């Protein structure tokens, strides 16, 4: 099946961007990859008949507007440090007649008031507010926010959820708190699902996951493969949140340390919306919710995969 909807993808060469691009192209969508001028990362992307690469200066709205001419949907998978660059991208999208903008959300439930107020999501919330305002002012323009909570396979591979390579884990709030987790490939399929269901996903947040798990459950699966004992420590997310605020008050705060604490609070904290069971939108986007045995197989594959760089995205 080939979609008539045209998509521009910002951040296509990042870890998540590659997964999103793969699923869009597999779904028959025509994709324009926005590559930063002067950069060479886009050269690593495989060639595909449905793919076009355009170099842009993200600081110049005129440049972006020209690149987005003829595009229906803009998808941003820009990394944390580039989140604020989406403001110019949004303005250019409106100027060029884009009808849907999917920002670089892809994480915790920032529609939840407690999560929304955490400093780690300050820039994401600013972009959300800007999108809501622009959609109200421009009836032909709309947005979709995609929430997926924790990255499943990636989170295991980099040792964030658990670290199977050395059999260690930091158990947040005891390790028995159920939380939603999602593979990057599923996030890519969710983006495709939005592109193919624009009316049903207009001006709202959609919630997707592969399933709900616990950290201790992940360790139990790992022990089926390797029964040796694990070394675990326990960390209380409420304390991590308090410590994060204290860190930010310092003259020279460790920003990464503070934000990491806020992130764990959003994923595992009671009342922070990390379990999507009651609101999951998989069916709207044509995505299955996986059975327990399917989750177990995914975890086994992730455990067996080579370790990645532990650069946790906020």
TrEMBL record:
The keyword Oxidoreductase applies. Pfam families: NmrA (PF05368). It comes from the Eukaryota. Residues 4-224 form the NmrA-like domain. One of its GO terms (molecular function) is oxidoreductase activity. PANTHER family: CIPA-LIKE, PUTATIVE (AFU_ORTHOLOGUE AFUA_1G12460)-RELATED, NMRA-LIKE FAMILY PROTEIN. This is NmrA-like domain-containing protein.
